[in-house]
Specification:
repeat; actin filament binding; 4-stranded antiparallel sheet; 3% helix; 378 residues; Methylamine Dehydrogenase, Chain H; WD40_rpt; Actin-related protein 2/3 complex subunit
Length: 378
C-alpha cells in the first residue's frame, strides 16, 4: 500500500489544497465554506472557516509563492483570499458569469488564474492595482458545453481545457498588460488572447480532468468512457494515443514525472499509467492494491463485481479470459475520488508525494518513495 496518511475531515469533500509549506490544509466540506486545518501535536486542528460564497465551492487553489487562496463556486463568483494578520480577507473577482464556476487554477507565475464554468466560458483573471480587484477576460463561443477542468502550461501562456462536449482544447491567454514580451514562446508568439491553438476530438463522452507534464511536452486528459488520452508534440501535428480500461471512469489526472501518471475517479482507487522507452502508455496497477494478481492486460472492476454478486455469475463468466484478473477489494477511499493535488516542490520534474480527496470525506496522502516497481519511471 502506498498510502501513508489517511484523515477523515467531513462526510464529503468537494476539493482541497495545501499551503506552500504543506503545514495547512484547506478543503470544502460539500458546502459554501472553506475549512483550514493545521497539524498540532499529531492532531489536526481547525484554524479558520472562510465564509463568503452562497453555494457549494467547486474549486480551491493555494498559490505557492504569494500564499493566496482562490476559490470558485456554484454561486458564479470567485474570491481571492489574502492573509492579513490572523484573518483571511476576501477580494472579489469580476467573473461576469451566468452559470456556475466549476474549477479554478493559478498560473505558474501566479499573475493570473483561470476559472472554468457551466456557461461554456473560461475566465482568465488578473489583478488591477488601481481598483484593488481582480478582473477577467473571457474566452467565449469556443466550448459547446460546461468547462470541467483547466490546466496551465509551464510557459504561463497556454491553457488546456476539458469540457462535457467531449473535447480538449488549448488556448492562448496572452494579456499584454500582464504578460511580459519575453515570456512569449515560439508556439504562442503570434497568438492573440483566446485564440484556439488546438482542439482534440479524441473522446466520445464527457471530458473531465486535464493536466500537462512537467516539461509541457505531453498533455493528458480523461473521459467518462473509461479512457485516458495522451497527446505528445502538441501543435499542428500532435501524436495522440489512448488507454482503455474496464473499470469506472476517472475524474482527474496528475503527472508524477514525464513518464508516470496517476488517475483518480469513480473506482475509489488511484490508477497508475506509465510510458515505456518507446513512449507507449499503458496501465500499470492500482496504488491501493497489495499485490498484482495477474500479468494479463485486463482486470475486473467494482461495478463488475457488483453485477456478479447480484446475478450470481462466476468471475470467469464475464470475459473470454481463462485467468481471474479481478483486483483486490477494500480500497483506502470508500467513494469517488474527485481531487488530486501534488505535494512535491513547485516546478519539480517529479512528484513523489500527492494527496487525494473524495466524496467519502477523506484526505489521503500517498508516498511513492519506496515503490520499487515505479522507480524506473521517475
Amino acid at each position: 500500500m502506498a498510502a501513508v496518511e489517511v484523515h477523515r475531515f467531513a462526510q464529503c469533500i468537494t476539493c482541497h489544497a495545501w499551503s506552500p509549506d504543506r503545514s495547512m490544509l484547506a478543503f470544502c466540506p460539500n458546502n459554501n465554506e472553506v475549512h483550514i486545518y493545521t497539524l498540532m501535536q499529531s492532531k489536526w486542528e481547525k484554524l479558520h472557516v472562510l465564509q463568503k460564497h452562497d453555494q457549494i465551492i467547486s474549486g480551491i487553489d493555494w498559490s505557492a509563492r504569494s500564499n493566496k487562496i482562490v476559490t470558485s463556486s456554484h454561486d458564479r463568483n470567485s474570491y481571492v483570499w489574502n492573509l492579513e494578520g490572523s484573518e483571511w480577507v476576501p477580494t472579489l473577482v469580476i467573473l461576469r458569469l451566468n452559470r456556475a464556476a466549476l474549477c479554478v487554477q493559478w498560473s505558474p507565475k501566479e499573475n493570473k488564474f483561470a476559472v472554468g464554468s457551466g456557461a461554456k466560458t473560461v475566465c482568465i483573471c488578473y489583478y488591477e492595482q488601481e481598483n484593488n480587484w481582480w478582473v477577467s477576460k473571457l474566452i467565449r463561443k469556443r466550448h459547446d458545453s460546461s468547462v470541467t477542468s483547466v490546466a496551465w502550461h509551464p510557459n504561463n501562456i497556454l491553457l488546456a481545457t476539458a469540457s462535457t462536449d467531449g473535447k480538449c482544447r488549448i488556448f492562448s491567454t496572452y494579456i499584454k498588460v500582464v504578460d511580459a514580451k519575453e515570456s512569449k514562446t515560439v508556439s504562442s508568439s503570434d497568438a492573440k488572447f483566446g485564440e484556439l491553438i488546438l482542439q482534440l476530438d479524441l473522446s466520445s463522452s464527457w471530458a473531465f480532468g486535464v493536466r500537462w507534464s512537467p516539461s509541457g511536452n505531453t498533455l493528458a486528459y480523461v473521459g467518462h468512457n473509461s479512457m485516458i488520452y495522451f497527446v505528445d508534440e502538441v501543435g499542428p501535428s500532435p501524436l495522440a494515443q489512448n488507454v482503455a480500461f474496464r473499470d469506472l471512469p476517472l475524474r482527474d489526472v496528475l503527472f508524477l514525472s514525464e513518464r508516470l501518471v496517476v488517475g483518480v475517479g469513480f473506482d475509489c482507487n488511484p490508477m497508475v499509467f506509465a510510458a515505456d522507452e518507446r513512449g507507449i502508455w499503458s496501465f500499470i496497477r492500482f496504488l491501493g492494491e497489495r499485490r498484482i494478481t495477474s500479468s494479463g492486460p485486463k482486470y475486473g472492476s467494482q461495478l463488475s463485481g457488483a453485477f456478479r454478486t447480484l446475478y450470481g455469475q462466476p468471475k470467469h463468466g464475464l470475459s473470454n479470459d481463462t485467468n481471474d484478473h479481478s483486483r483486490p477489494q477494500g480500497t483506502v477511499h470508500e467513494n469517488c475520488i474527485n481531487c488530486i493535488v501534488p505535494l512535491g516542490t513547485s516546478g519539480s520534474s517529479k512528484v513523489m508525494r500527492f494527496s487525494t480527496s473524495g466524496l467519502d470525506g477523506k484526505v489521503v496522502v500517498w508516498d511513492l518513495e519506496n515503490q520499487a516497481d515505479l522507480s524506473e519511471y521517475f
